[in-house]
């Protein structure tokens, strides 16, 4: 539980960086031809229609030339995926069985095994969320590559970065909710095997 709580704090911390906007920096960050205080006025109106607290970027040259804050946010989603995958593998081993594995926890039998493997419970929710974690790690690599492709004053790879981050958020949200509902809340302890071991 503490591992997931730490990841949640990392995500919240990295999300704060996304509140600083390059709006008003015009082409390369100089702000040339932008009306005076346009950045502040833009953020004020944006804040009225969102729940965030956007502010002008402190350095618009840096904010336009790089997307490091988005890379950092993607990394926080990646770290969550790494932690989830570790936990999922632990659950997979602890539920292995029924006879030759550890079998110390009982998984919900959403899709029981076939006639040739009686008593087997397929860990489908673990498998599904594991695949989500692997995909998020792949998405993060694309974000990292996109972040490294800014040349001089402009990084034009934001569509690639945004696409992969939104994809990761949606996958993690759906995958975690499904895992909690269809697996985690229904896991029980196999006291017989625990005492035997």
Q: What overall form do the CA principal axes indicate?
A: elongated
Q: Hey, roughly how much beta strand do the residues contain?
A: under 5%
Largest sheet: number of strands, sense, barrel closure: 2 strands, parallel
Number of helices, where a helix is a run of at least 4 consecutive DSSP H or I residues: 7
Return the average pLDDT rounded to an integer: 92
Task: Count every beta strand, where a strand is a DSSP E run of 2 or more residues.
Answer: 4
Order of H and E elements: HEHEHHEHHEH
Radius of gyration, Cα only, in angstroms?
Answer: 23 Å
Helix content: 55-70%
N-to-C CA distance: 25 Å
Walk across the major sheet and give the strand order.
1-2
Overall structural class, as computed from helix and strand content, comes to mainly alpha
Question: Which blocks of ≥5 consecutive residues have pLDDT under 50?
Answer: none
General description of the model:
The protein has about 200 residues and is mainly α. It is built from seven helices and four strands, in the order H-E-H-E-H-H-E-H-H-E-H. The chain has a two-stranded parallel ribbon. A two-stranded antiparallel sheet has the order 3-4. Helix 2 (about 40-50) links the parallel strand 1 (about 20) and strand 2 (about 55). Helix 5 (about 125-145) packs antiparallel against helix 6. The protein is elongated and about 75 Å long. The two termini are about 25 Å apart. The mean pLDDT is about 90.
């Amino acid at each position: 539980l503490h591992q997931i709580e730490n990841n949640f704090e990392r995500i919240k911390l990295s999300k704060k960086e996304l509140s600083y906007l390059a709006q008003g920096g015009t082409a390369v960050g100089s702000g040339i031809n932008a009306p005076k205080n346009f950045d502040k006025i833009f953020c004020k109106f944006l804040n009225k229609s969102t729940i965030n607290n956007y502010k002008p970027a402190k350095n618009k040259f840096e904010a336009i030339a790089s997307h490091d804050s988005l890379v950092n946010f993607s990394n926080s989603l990646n770290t969550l995926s790494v932690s989830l995958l570790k936990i999922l593998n632990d659950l997979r081993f602890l539920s292995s069985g029924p006879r030759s594995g550890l079998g110390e926890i009982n998984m919900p039998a959403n899709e029981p095994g076939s006639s040739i493997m009686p008593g087997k419970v397929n860990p489908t929710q673990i498998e599904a969320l594991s695949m989500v974690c692997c995909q998020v790690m792949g998405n993060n690599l694309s974000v990292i590559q996109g972040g490294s492709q800014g040349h001089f004053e402009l990084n034009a790879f934001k569509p690639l970065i945004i696409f992969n981050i939104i994809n990761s958020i949606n996958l993690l949200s759906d995958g975690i909710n499904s895992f909690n509902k269809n697996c985690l809340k229904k896991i029980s302890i196999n006291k017989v095997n625990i005492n035997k071991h």
